[in-house]
């Protein structure tokens, strides 16, 4: 069976992920994401009102026109998890394919919300939920099957899809860390990865995320970040002024910890910002998390400002606002607070807890720097980098290669410079550039079996 892989997006940048695998006449697309930095550098861009071709031209979503070169039919569109760099192009591109969008339950709920916000295209693709551990037939040949393997990441309900073919398995390895003690959900299923590596035919190809490949050691568990956050908030328990926390709104495990620790230090947690309300509200509705007690969630500008007025009236020392804006996004809550555009008044000595790392991309780094300076100018004191990454470090990559023993490896999720540490790592394990280690770019295809 011919096996061909089209590397469509995410092979020259961090963002706008999209990869297609053709097995015989059947094609599966993995991820359709947005490069958020290409949007943030423009003022007031509303992507939901824009045409896909304009977004392609500005480098914001994958250029999927290479799909016309693949001889076969798309049978499924499979987002690995609910981050925007993996799902936000689905409303712009999915309608071009007569195929269902298949994902884990939480991911599909987020995709559904993305589609409902779309103002340019009618997206009628079926949305199919499949749990980790589930399988489904691909095409009519009964020779190709897709499986979801549970992984741990900085968002709940993440999976790595595996395409089983007569030539071996294709493992799409974006994005994960090896977390054996997660705060929410099950640990990464390394036992199943090991079984896939040992099965007949083995692993024909492994497509891997290179984000932290140049960092030594292992990525810590989310339980480590939880302990760090607990220590930080308890250290300011006696402070009577304002404490504000920010994290990835999609990081439900971290939000859960913030909510619990807020109560522990005698403060009422309040979730503020559109995306904070969306991700946490969806997770609670699907029973992935139970925040227990009274947690205010406010997304619209007016309701957020009303919540800020209530906090100021009843005393900042009684609340822990958990807000959007950890990357300094221009319209996010924390950025507005830094500019003095909300009823919440920061004062000398108030604490701002960044329970998030900086996404390693120049736009994010610049915006985050600006946000921190604005907060400091108002007297805020900053607690930085109370966080663990959602991506594998060096030792995790060694373990995955050892577990899967793939015949071919394709590094992705980075530009060329960002992939070079992974290339060196793979070469140290016997892989060779141009033979079984394929460094490719957006818009290319890799023919694995002719």
TrEMBL record:
Keyword Nuclease set for record: yes
GO biological process: RNA catabolic process
Alphabetic keyword roster: Cytoplasm, Exonuclease, Hydrolase, Metal-binding, Nuclease, RNA-binding, Zinc
Cofactor section: Zn(2+)
Cofactor note: Binds 2 Zn(2+) ions per subunit. It is not clear if Zn(2+) or Mg(2+) is physiologically important.
Positions that bind Zn(2+) 2: 85-86, 175, 413
InterPro entries referenced in this protein's UniProt entry, alphabetically: Metallo-B-lactamas, RibonucZ/Hydroxyglut_hydro, RNase_J_2, RNase_J_arc, RNase_J_b_CASP
Record-annotated Metallo-beta-lactamase domain positions: 15-228
Chief location: cytoplasm
Compartments in which it is found: Cytoplasm
Binding site for Zn(2+) 1: 81, 83, 153, 175
GO cellular component, one term: cytoplasm
Annotated residues for binding of substrate: 387-391
Enzyme Commission number, as recorded: 3.1.-.-
Highest taxon above the source species: Archaea
A GO molecular-function annotation: 5'-3' RNA exonuclease activity
HAMAP family: RNase_J_arch (MF_01492)
Assembly: Homodimer.
Family, as annotated: Belongs to the metallo-beta-lactamase superfamily. RNA-metabolizing metallo-beta-lactamase-like family. Archaeal RNase J subfamily.
Function, as annotated: An RNase that has 5'-3' exonuclease activity. May be involved in RNA degradation.
Name of the molecule in the record: Ribonuclease J
